[in-house]
Amino acid sequence: MKRTLSVLLVLIVSCGFIFAAGGAETTTTASDPNTVKVALLCIGDENDQGYTYNFIRGRDRATEMLAADGITVEWVTKFNIGEDASCRDANIEAAEEGCQIIINNSFGFEPYMLEVVDDYPEIEFISCTNSASAVDGRANTHNAFANIFEGRYLAGVVAGMKLQQMIDEGQITPEEAVIGYVGAYSFAEVISGFTSYYLGAKSVCPSVTMLVSFVGSWSDATAESDAALALIDQGAVMVSQHSDNTTPATAAQSRGVFHTGYNNDMTGIAPNASLISTRIDWSIYFYEAIKTYVEGGEIPQDWCGSWADGSVVMTTLNEAIAAPGTAEKLAEVEAGLADGSIQVFDTSTFTVGGEELTHAFAIDTDGDFTADSEEAVYDGAFHESVFQSAPYFTAQIDGITWLNAAY
After folding, report:
1. pLDDT (tens digit, 9 = 90+) per residue, 325-346?
2. How far is CA 294 from CA 2, 64, 76, 99, 285, in A?
3. 148-279+315-402 belongs to which CATH class?
4. Fewest CB within a 10 Å sphere: which of 41, 91, 294, 381?
5. How large is the C-alpha radius of gyration of the chain?
């Protein structure tokens, strides 16, 4: 059934945009039967050149794709929202401004979003990278994520190829093939990501080890740089990250070591260090969710994209510094991920406390890890993001040292 669409009241128009207080940006269009008003609430802004910038790219590409289908999107984009009560307020503001879909882009936004949703049952609320909305029983709440662990595995392959080249050329010993990883929090999403990255590197550089430092923030440019520099001081010759800024890349370049990034191509700011990055192409989900809404369908309660459907992508390989043969190896592994012949968490490729992982609980219908859950280890692999879109791999595998776990 076609939904009734609200008319946007334009207050101040300048070059096709309304700029509202509090860092909000609203695009304006003519009202028509295929127009929908969508809010995007962001933890940062596009100046981070990382996480939020990647969401803005997805927003803009989805707008183009939907326009080709005759659907116009009026976007209300609010920047620099905290993972605190200000997120609840931003959701309320977007609802009162007439938004029919409200997208929250950060992990810590979901609890505050859920405080609001029952007051606006006619509005669709989406929490990206989270899990509670998938199992809360509400018709108007949704989760969305993609198998970024596949992209991180590929980035790890690139890193491992470079490390093995350095070993083969006598620049480092096998024992010196150390990766330093800057992580935001010791959450499943981060653990899953750095483990898959490590396994990708280990698949081509068997002697590799990894040091992980958690900074306790998704977006703290200074802390991310400091953590990267400290990891380099402890022997890391390769740096990677699950954090929102480009400072780990610039830190790597400043010390003459290598880097792989997240959310954006970082070769522009670290051309002698950054090899490649991986990111989620959010345009795929935004297009599907908004088109479904406008056509009167039901947005999936829990959506998960993958490498195979184009939701997980790699930036252009920096062939000026990549190891010889990297492009060919990437193509081989990409094909294996797409056809399922390569399983990222193949349990024969890693151990936990010296033992192969044979048993791990997945998520049950209440969103908890319990003995009654579906079993995530089967057919020789841990199957990440099968039972819910948000990651749930939390094992501390051998070869990876956590320098802190306070977050």
Report:
1. 999 999 999 999 999 999 999 9
2. 7, 15, 17, 13, 14
3. alpha beta
4. 381
5. 21
CA 178-181-184 angle, 5° bins = 165
CA 64 to chain centre: 22
* Assigned CATH class of 17-147+281-305: alpha beta
Q: How many whole angstroms separate alpha carbon 140 and alpha carbon 113?
A: 11
Under DSSP, is residue 181 helix (H, G, I), strand (E, B) or coil? strand
pTM: 0.88
How far is residue 294's CA from residue 282's CA, in Å, rounded to a whole number? Answer: 18
The residue with tokens 């990206």 is 128
Query: What is 285-331 written as a DSSP string?
Result: HHHHHHHHHHTT----SEEEE-TTTTSEEEPPP-TTTSPTTHHHHHH
CATH 3.40.50.2300 positions along the chain are 17-147+281-305, 148-279+315-402
Measured between alpha carbons, how far is 405 from 64 in angstroms, rounded to an integer? Answer: 42
Measure the CA–CA gap between 70 and 83, rounded to whole angstroms.
35
d(CA 125, CA 41): 11
The answer to whether 220 and 241 have CB atoms below 8 angstroms apart is no
Looking at the predicted structure, is the pLDDT value of residue 314 above 50?
yes
Whole-number Å distance between alpha carbons of 78 and 94: 9
Residue 389 pLDDT: 95
Residue 186 CA to residue 307 CA, distance in Å, equals: 24
Q: List, for residues 99-155, the tens digit of each pLDDT value.
A: 999 999 999 999 999 999 999 999 999 999 999 999 999 999 999 999 999 999 999
**Phi then psi dihedrals of residue 206, to 5 deg:** -60, -25
Burial class of residue 184 in the structure, from the number of CB atoms within 10 Å of its CB (0-12 exposed, 13-18 middle, 19+ buried)? buried
Q: What share of the chain is helix, strand, coil (3-state, %, to 5)?
A: 35, 20, 45
Cα gap 364→342, rounded to integer Å: 26
Rounded to the nearest angstrom, the gap between the alpha carbon of residue 251 and the centroid of all alpha carbons in its chain is 22
